[in-house]
Design brief:
Blueprint: E1 2-5, H1 14-27, E2 32-36, H2 42-46, H3 56-60, H4 66-69, E3 70-72, E4 78-81, H5 87-96, H6 104-109, E5 118-122, H7 129-137, E6 140-146, H8 149-153, H9 155-168, E7 173-182, H10 187-199, E8 204-210, H11 213-220, H12 233-249
Parallel strand pairs: 1-5, 1-6, 2-4, 2-5, 6-7, 7-8
Antiparallel strand pairs: 3-4
Length: about 260
């Protein structure tokens, strides 16, 4: 199962969700690969990616094979592909190839389906050839949305882009809309969540990610929240999200993949 985390707005917890959901799946025995497809490289930084090694762009542009770009983490069943700012230059090369411009990542990830149970893609917060590559490669998309009115109102362009892909490229499904930065007891957050459910019935995760300082602390030390403070609210929320995703996806476990 290949899942992209997408929203053209930044600061909605895409990277945090990709990392912590991936960790939750790995802890349950699912062989999981994280792909950092955002040139800002936040996910790569969180995971302590060393400079000088081949990255996502090298793999996409056939400068390095997958076994040279995949990196291990300290956590069982969890590997990742790092990126850096050079991905912007590679995106420009993709744009010049009109016949396969949006299919670079799909061509690569299809060969990994037998190796990983889940491939999670962290995307950049803008409409671009890179984002199109991520969505075309994915089976499902998770859309993290900050529970604020401006964030919800900004969903329309992304949903239109998804419909365009559904109509013209592939049957891309929305796995779920994820409310983030929730503040229990705050009326605006509750109203925003209710509005999401009304606009997109059946597509909103029942789990929300509450505002929790431990999530930022965990990212600062390069750890998934489950490996930083399993008793905090952030860990509880991501554990609940992990269970919800597993129930929706019906993915059968494979033998753990080796990080090469």
């Amino acid at each position: 199962m290949i899942i992209a985390f997408a929203n053209q707005k930044g600061g909605v917890a895409k990277t945090t969700t990709c990392l912590n959901l991936g960790a939750g799946l790995a802890m349950r025995g699912y062989s999981t690969l994280l792909i950092d497809s955002d040139p800002q490289a936040s996910l790569s930084c969180y995971l302590g990616a060393e400079a000088g090694k081949p990255t996502l762009g090298d793999w996409l542009m056939d400068r390095a094979p997958f076994d040279q770009v995949v990196r291990a983490t300290p956590h069982a069943n969890l590997s990742y592909v790092a990126t850096n700012e050079r991905l912007i230059a590679d995106e420009s090369l993709m744009e010049q190839d009109k016949f396969k411009a949006i299919h670079y990542l799909k061509r690569k990830t299809e060969a990994l389906r037998d190796r990983y149970n889940f491939i999670l893609i962290d995307t950049m917060p803008s409409f671009s050839v890179l984002l199109a590559n991520n969505l075309v490669a994915a089976d499902q998309v998770v859309i993290p949305v900050k529970l604020e009115w401006l964030s919800i109102q900004g969903l329309a362009p992304l949903l239109a882009k998804l419909r365009d892909i559904q109509d013209n490229v592939k049957d891309l499904q929305i796995l779920g809309i994820l409310g983030t930065f929730n503040r229990k007891g705050v009326t605006e957050c509750h109203k925003c969540f209710t509005e999401l459910e009304a606009q997109l019935p059946g597509r909103v995760f029942s789990t929300t990610i509450q505002l929790n300082s431990k999530l930022a602390e965990a990212a600062g030390v390069g750890k998934p929240i489950q490996h930083y403070d399993r008793l905090c609210q952030g860990a509880t929320d991501y554990e609940e999200l992990t269970e919800e995703v597993i129930k929706k996806c019906h993915v059968k476990k494979k033998a753990p993949a080796e990080a090469r």
